[in-house]
Design goal:
Layout lengths: L1 E10 L3 H17 L4 E6 L11 H5 L5 E10 L2 H11 L3 H4 L12 E5 L9
Antiparallel strand pairs: 1-3, 1-4, 2-3
C-alpha cells in the first residue's frame, strides 16, 4: 500500500468549487487504480505558535485548510497515476483551480500502522 498526502488552503467562498474539482480528481484517480480517496475540510485547525498547517501552506486570511490523501495498492501504481492523471482530459479541461498550487504540500508515504474498526 502507498499513500499520497496533500495539505493546502482554499478560500472559504470557493468550497463548493473545490468539492467539484475534488470529485473530478477522484474519478480520474479511481480510473488510475486508487483504492480510497479522502478530502477533508477544516473545522478545527489551531494557529500554531511555532508550526501549524496554516504556516506550512502560507494560508491567507479567509482560507480554510484541506487535508487529502489517496491510497494506492502500491508505490508503482501511485507513481504511474501521478504522471498519467495530469494528462487526463478531465483534469486538463478544468478552467481554474480554486487554490494556489504553489502553497500545496504533498508527499508519498508508506503506511506503518493502520486501524480499522470492524
Amino acid at each position: 500500500m502507498y499513500v499520497n498526502g496533500y495539505i493546502l488552503s482554499v478560500p472559504e467562498e470557493k468550497k463548493a468549487t473545490y468539492i467539484a474539482v475534488a470529485k473530478i480528481f477522484a474519478e480520474v484517480a479511481k480510473g488510475f487504480g486508487a483504492i480510497e480517496i479522502f478530502e477533508n475540510w477544516e473545522l478545527e485547525v489551531p494557529d500554531g505558535e511555532h508550526t501549524s498547517f496554516r504556516r506550512a501552506v502560507k494560508a491567507k486570511p479567509g482560507e480554510k485548510i484541506v487535508m487529502s490523501w489517496v491510497i494506492w495498492p502500491d508505490r508503482q501504481t501511485g507513481a504511474a497515476a501521478h504522471k498519467g492523471m495530469f494528462t487526463d482530459p478531465r483534469l486538463k479541461e478544468l478552467d481554474e483551480m480554486p487554490f494556489d498550487g504553489k502553497h500545496m504540500i504533498m508527499g508519498g508515504f508508506e503506511p506503518i500502522l493502520a486501524f480499522h474498526k470492524e
